Amino acid sequence: MSTSLKKAGLYVGLTFLVSYLLIGLYLAFGGKWVMPGSLIVTIGYMFVPMTVAIAVQKTIYKQPVRGPLGVSFRLNRWFLVAWLLPPLIAMATLGTSLLSPAVEFSPEMTGLFERFKSALTPEQFQQMERQTALLPIHPFWLGLAQGLVAGPTINAVAGFGEELGWRGLLQKELSRLGFWKSSAVIGIVWGLWHAPIILQGHNYPQHPVEGVAMMTAFTVLLAPIFSYIRLKTKSVIAAAILHGSLNATAGLAVSVIKGGDDLTTGMTGLAGFIVLAVVNIAILVHRGYNHASRNEALT
Length: 299
Description:
The chain is mainly α. It has helices spanning 3-28, 37-46, 48-60, 77-97, 110-116, 122-133, 139-150, 154-173, 179-193, 195-198, 208-233, 236-249, 270-298, and strands at 103-105, 257-259. It has one domain. It is 70% helix and 2% strand.
């Protein structure tokens, strides 16, 4: 086995060990998967891949972190793609969901409120409804504005907690597999890493068990997009911005619909999978066009 694969295997093993242990200890000591406890644990969970990546890279392999793992703030136009692509995907997912006869447009945000019920106490849920009713503009537009601000800032910090591992260390060590194979492997690892929190109802409160497979399919579809941004920017910071923007705007896809369920609607449901598949096809075409252009230039 090559050194790169050994290093990748060690990284994945340690990341899963620490991550699963974190959730196990939280639940063993009586933690409940409701706000704010679940949010605090989830944020901590997101920083495990980064922490383990630094430990493996610097402590075990005695190698620098910043250069090899792509910690670069040198901007190019693909940073803009990383910022704006997620809200476009969210809106396309919203439109795709509405194509289903079981889904209806709901400006009253009935469907979104239903999704929050399992994660909030009754008091917190009622408070959220009251605060939403007092907003001066529709929550959809407020959510979009907040997402565009939070995506490349505070959410990107949390996104970096994962991306230094997935698109930093792991993508580098698996690069010999090629773009699509390495993306598939990272996508599977990324999805299964979510399993403990998915089983608690995260993203799939109605179907926590089936949600593990759905989340893995979701991350397999996401991984080439993240990998492509990482390659085009030569920076894991751009991947963190993409991650932050995705988390900040994903709720838009279910904010004004009702009907369907967590397996069919939203970015992590079937509607989102269809949109992400289209983006993957676009990447395939773009990569092919770039390769053809380079070949023409060489001849």
